[in-house]
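Appendix B. One record, verbatim.
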Amino acid sequence: MHTIRYISNEAIDKAKWNACIARATNGLIYAYSWYLDPMSKHWDALVLNDYEAVMPLTWNKKMGIRYLYQPHFCASLGIFSTTALNESVVEAFLNSIPHRFRFIEIHLNHHNFYQVQGFPFSTKMNYTLDLSKPYASIHESYRTNLKRNIKKALDYNLICSTNVTVDEIIELASPTLMRNSNLQKTDWQNFKEVLETAAKKGILELLAVRSTRNELLASAVFLFSHQRWYYILVGNHPNGKTLGASHYLIDQFIQRHAGENCLLDFEGSDVRNLAFFYSSYGAKEETYPALRINRLPLILKWLKK
């Protein structure tokens, strides 16, 4: 029997919550309370029995209307379970979402892909690379164009190292992200809080590629959880594009972690050029569902079409 309770944030047992996420067969780093607390303005939860399975409900309010949304730097959330999920559990969770949330636009995780009546899913695309093989074996699967770009970086004597700060990476990444999303300054501050916590937990890795003149050409933040390295924040300088800097950075990360029993999670993408770039490393598709439901009053409904 599925006994699912709606629990407001202040009543969530965060120790039990995080233990559930840690043990979940489909756990993801975005679902830990220390990640959600800074990144979601408000979040409550649906909880099965004694935290056997959980679903964060990240919400906000506009014009007095509550809605569910996908927080920044949280590629997917949804239902997480300490035992294998099935259709009936997913259906029970979705039907337990309170109707007071009049608009829903969220991403669930790749283990939540069950068709439930009244909950229309669309498909989002992710790419993951198995790092368990030796580097030589992974490198063998690279596309020819990728190998050419890496050689270009080596010919220009580009230097890859961990000698970079979070602030430097954000400074390099923010112009592109601010241009292509609705990120605000507070979102960067909140994400820095997440990264500070991750650093204390020893699950943060920073990587940068510089020119021989010490110019920062490419950089990235990687987070580790649930046997996944998340390629979560990327900064590229225009000067690095013709030098293969970003290609080289990912290749160097792969070389550092090849042979580990984990995945490199590229966090998308539905953008064709990025999808091609990630697949150039031999990364495989991993689909996950997006849910969009519009229960707004008729006078407002057309605004969200």
